[in-house]
Amino acid sequence: MIKRLRSIRLTWPQIAIVAASSALSTGVVIHAATGRDSVPNATLSALRGHVVVHTLAAKTAAPPAAVSSAASTSTPSLADTSPSPSAPLDSGATTDDSATTDASNTTAGTDGGDVGTTDATTPATTTPSSTASPVKYVFVIALTTDSYGAAFGQGSVAHYLNGTLRRRGTLLSGYHTLGGTELPDYLAMISGQAPNADTTSNCATYAEFSSTATAQSNGQIPGPGCVYPNTTLTIADQVTAAGKQWKAYIAGMGSSACVHADSNAADDTQLTGADSDYDTRHNPFVYFHSLLDLGGCQSNDIGIQHLTKDLRVAKRTPTYAYIAPGLCDEPSATSCAGTEPVGLAAEDAFLKRWVPQILASQAYKQDGALMIVFADAKAATDAGAAGDRPVRTGALILSPLAHKGKTVSGSYGPYSVLRTIEGVLGYTPLVHAKGARSFATAVLPGA
User: Fold this and answer.
1) Does residue 12 contact residue 20 with C-beta atoms inside 8 Å?
2) Which domains does the chain have, with CATH numbers?
3) Between these two residues, 30 and 343, which has the higher pLDDT value?
4) What is the reported pLDDT for 33?
């Protein structure tokens, strides 16, 4: 038997996967032997971290003989993807507030790399940068808007966003969505996965991908489905693998955590444990088994009320924080019991409540970055034939390291958000983030 094993040749990725599976199996055996009904959170976190580290290694490892050839390759092939058109600038576009322009915007024929294009000033790479970034904490606030003009135009009702905050940060005036619905943007921002028919319809059914679904060479999971297999990684998995902490703070989840529907069940009704204001599509982390299966989601995907406490001390503040409002804070909202105002004005009130706490936190003041990004506000049923068309929405970046009162007109999108975060935190870009344009150089000098 030993001779038989010695004769089997395994690749480095296969060895890594075997090690990960062994760690998970060992944990399960120990759990069964002790006769416990549930695995302690600490054990889950340890097991999950071990599995994620080995899975990441499996995705990036190359056998010794291939190292030299890999080093001579400049840009990974993305031939199996195609660029999506950039949304045109409308008449509500503002001019640059600074003489400094976005140099990467001069690259002809690209749309910010959202589905496989490459920025000339920030080449796609499959390895982390060797230069340490000054950014150590990233906050993402995910909102929706009908248009760039609604959020950042002269007639915008978002006075705090378009007045106070805009003067303190850098506006990405060319930021656009992947399409006409919001869930695909949120999934792309944390995993790099491209939309499919189910996610474009905002996943009215909490549908599992087929058990036979296998990632393509670029990491994309093909076929229908909303809930990705546990081999599909996210920025949360990367943070965990790096020994850091991530958290999602979602409005409307109350005292519950990681609220989602049952597998393949309808997901368009109020869910047990959550308030009526909670919407699963605002919470992209519940769509990944890499976070669901070993407790990462249950531990770190929580109600927004926990954010205040976690901001008080830097050591409690997560390296990556994702923040989302409730249903009543969407532009499509008309009336919600006990909530005033609604729509974009409510989003502005949401920002006015939470952003000052972030900006006053020790973590942000030391080396933080806040990204306020917008998906399209239209519901899947309203998007119709335009559901797959990018919509220009704009985005605002604030940081002690960012330019103040500047506008960058380059074309960026949800993959750019992920690429920028992975870049400043030193992680390998996932799936379509590999070819996306980072806005770190244009917005965060030195990052």
Assistant:
1) no
2) 2-71 (no CATH), 103-443 (3.40.720.10)
3) 343
4) 41
